[in-house]
Amino acid sequence: MGKRALITGITGQDGSFLSEFLLNKGYEVHGIIRRSSVDFRERIAHLEGKPGFHLHFADLGDSMSIVKVVGQVQPDEIYNLAAQSHVQVSFDAPEFTADVDAVGVLRILEAVRACHLEKRCRIYQASTSELYGKVEAVPQNEETPFHPYSPYAVAKLYGYWIVKEYREAYGMYCCSGILFNHESERRGETFVTRKITLAAARIAQGLQDRLLLGNLSSKRDWGYARDYVECMWLMLQQERPDDYVIATGVQHTVREFADLAFRHVGITLRWEGEGADEKGICTAGPDRLVGKILVAVSPDFYRPTDVVNLLGDPSKARRELGWDPARTSFEQLVALMAEADMAKVAAEGAAAKVRTNLAEYLEKGIVK
Ligand code: NAP
Ligand code: F7E
After folding, report:
1. Mean pLDDT of 131-153
2. What is the mean pLDDT of residues 223-243?
3. From the CB of residue 164, how many other CB atoms can be counted at a distance below 10 Å?
4. Which of 30, 83, 158, 271 is the most exposed place for a label (fewest CB within 10 A)?
5. Residues forming beta bridges with residue 32, ordered by sequence position
6. Using a 6 Å cutoff on CB, does residue 65 contact ligand 1?
7. Chain-centroid distance, C-alpha 149
């Protein structure tokens, strides 16, 4: 019999990749989804109906729903990925963020205890490099002091400590993966990398004029999400539970990401000006774009406090988990995201054209 995993946040970027990874390993995969009047299951639509893949309604804000699902599924492993995961949104919705990202973790741990699974069920908590926030050292490893710098990070810090507490107080096998930014073609469209690759594709195909960004000098350690989900699993297969930094050990600025993404869609940019006046001007590419400002800064995307210097040291994960942080390079990551968005935008453009043609044909009576 394969193992049984319960994934919260299964509809998210990481949840979808982790589901594929665990199904390939022969797991029975159960996921919790929130009730909604619209369908947001695009990332897992290809898995629905597959043998061994099951969905349950629950909400991390509702203890009873969590206890019910944990009791029904009786999981061997829980991957707690559900969160309000957008840092900027956490400034607008700090209470909701705290409820889901902090107390939600406690609800999972308590549900496992309520169902008497604490000796059997292993728990992975999706922690984050945002804990280092206003960084006190570069690069950051498992010993670097935390200095959370947003309501999101403060909530996640509670999650980190409550996991440690339950490990020590009740001997539970639970651990936190301190994951640095990881991106993909499935990344939410308002995170900076995906916002850039989508905009670059739309600009290249004549569907958007300009991309507005916030802090272009912010530095991140960006990896590929598909590679990172393996670490979540590896952390739950060790003899002892522990916390691990997962990162590539390579750092780039938002500006560098944008530069490379535009180059992948055939547009070269020259950067001029500083701060809010900085602009990315097209120097080579389609004639209609040369000389035009394609990237500009809007202070609307500045954060009240911004984390600007994240660089992870994945030595412990490499040593103890045998994980290779260099599997997908920064250049490969940008390329695969840009290519996926070029294809997506082209397909949307074609579909829109079909709709327009159909409207015209209906109007002219060509199609009845
Ligand atoms: P994501 O794409 O934003 O997905 C978040 C998931 O959480 C979605 O499935 C969402 O469901 C679910 N969710 C939100 N509120 C919920 C609630 N109250 N009850 C149940 N489910 C809820 O995030 P991600 O990038 O996959 O990240 C996964 C986890 O890793 C998150 O905890 C994030 O904070 C953490 N993390 C991410 C990164 C990164 O770079 N991606 C780095 C470090 C840590 P809906 O689809 O219904 O909204
Ligand atoms: O911002 C800057 C922004 O929103 C990255 C989450 O998955 O990773 C993610 O959080 C940087 C920041 O990701 C725009 O100010 C500039 O410095 O893509 P992001 P994040 O805040 O690092 C961590 C590890 C998580 O745990 C989170 O869940 O880019 N930036 N201009 C911008 N950011 C956005 N979103 N939009 C802009 O226009």
Report:
1. 98
2. 98
3. 16
4. 271
5. 8, 56
6. no
7. 19
Q: Which of 35-39, 40-44, 153-157, 259-263 has the lowest mean pLDDT?
A: 35-39
Three-state DSSP state, 211: strand
Q: Is the pLDDT of residue 361 over 80?
A: no
How far the first Cα of the chain sits from its last, in Å, is: 56
- Measured CA to CA, the distance from residue 294 to residue 304 in angstroms comes to 26
To test the ligand 1 pocket, which listed residue (14, 189, 232) has its Cβ within 8 A of the most ligand atoms?
14
368 Cα: distance to centroid of ligand 1 (angstroms): 46
**Hey, CA dihedral for 217, 218, 221, 224, is it positive or negative?**
negative
Residue closest to 342 by CA, chosen among 232, 248, 235, 206: 206
Answer whether 363's CB lies under 8 Å from 252's CB: no
What element of type H or E holds 162?
helix 151-170
Confidence of residue 232 (pLDDT cuts 50, 70, 90): very high
What's the Cα-to-Cα distance from 103 to each of 75, 114, 135, 185, 332, rounded to whole Å?
Answer: 21, 16, 25, 30, 37
**Cα–Cα dist 65/108, whole Å:** 10
Please tell me if the CB atom of residue 31 comes closer than 6 angstroms to any atom of ligand 1. Answer: no
Q: Are strands 211-213 and 244-246 parallel, antiparallel or unpaired?
A: unpaired
Ligand 2 atom 10 nearest Cα: 87
Q: pLDDT (tens digit, 9 = 90+) per residue, 98-115?
A: 999 999 999 999 999 999
Find the helix packing angle between 13-24 and 225-235, rounded to 10°.
60
If you average pLDDT over residues 278-291, what whole number do you get? 98
Predicted pLDDT of residue 366: 66
Q: What is the CA radius of gyration of the chain?
A: 22
Q: In which residue are the tokens 């594929």 written?
A: 20
C-beta of residue 22 within 8 angstroms of C-beta of residue 232 = no
| Cβ–Cβ under 8 Å, residues 148 and 127 | no
